[in-house]
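FAQ

Q: What does a record look like?
A: Structure on top, sequence underneath. For example:
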């Protein structure tokens, strides 16, 4: 059962990286320093004071940069591959007591996939916000994403199964809203 909870925790934290890259590792660092999170060997550095300082600085810079309308869309191009790598890292860091092959396979496929899926939805949301509000609504999107990253990471640490369920439902709704194709519309042919 503990292995399943570690996998769910890793998925929840990885999905949170899709919102913001540095907020989930910051939350993890705080939780590890407080004794509420056990990190896998090789990742215990995340629960150190220097890591907390580094993640805190990086998170503050990342969050602040997303409040500049021209910079937020540029950051999405950088954040997409970075979110996948961060998702792999955070998921692997909490998967304890399993073979390295299984751990890294799950981290790459499930963790990277979860982060990439959430990141794709946020990129699409920001693009739509930029299009429909000419960038003036992007600060609302940025605030929501930052809060979502912190909430998802925190809930994942406390209630991993619930976090994965909520994030999965949110991803499904986001997918349906932004990526569905029109169905049932007749195709018009010009003659």
């Amino acid at each position: 059962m503990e292995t399943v909870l570690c996998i769910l925790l890793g998925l929840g934290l990885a999905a949170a990286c899709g919102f913001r890259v540095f907020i989930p590792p910051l939350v993890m660092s705080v939780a590890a320093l407080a004794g509420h999170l056990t990190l896998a060997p090789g990742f215990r550095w995340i629960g150190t004071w220097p890591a907390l300082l580094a993640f805190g600085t990086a998170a503050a810079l990342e969050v602040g940069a997303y409040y500049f309308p021209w910079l937020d869309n540029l950051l999405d191009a950088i954040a997409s591959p970075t979110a996948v790598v961060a998702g792999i890292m955070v998921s692997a860091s909490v998967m304890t007591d399993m073979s390295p092959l299984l751990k890294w396979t799950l981290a790459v496929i499930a963790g990277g996939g979860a982060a990439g899926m959430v990141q794709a939805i946020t990129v699409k949301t920001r693009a739509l916000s930029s299009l429909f509000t000419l960038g003036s609504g992007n600060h609302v999107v940025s605030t929501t994403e930052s809060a979502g990253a912190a909430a998802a990471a925190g809930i994942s640490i406390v209630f991993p199964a619930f976090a994965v369920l909520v994030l999965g439902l949110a991803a499904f709704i986001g997918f349906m809203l932004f990526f569905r194709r029109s169905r049932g519309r007749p195709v018009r042919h010009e003659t």
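Q: Is there anything notable about this one?
A: The chain has one domain: 2-174.
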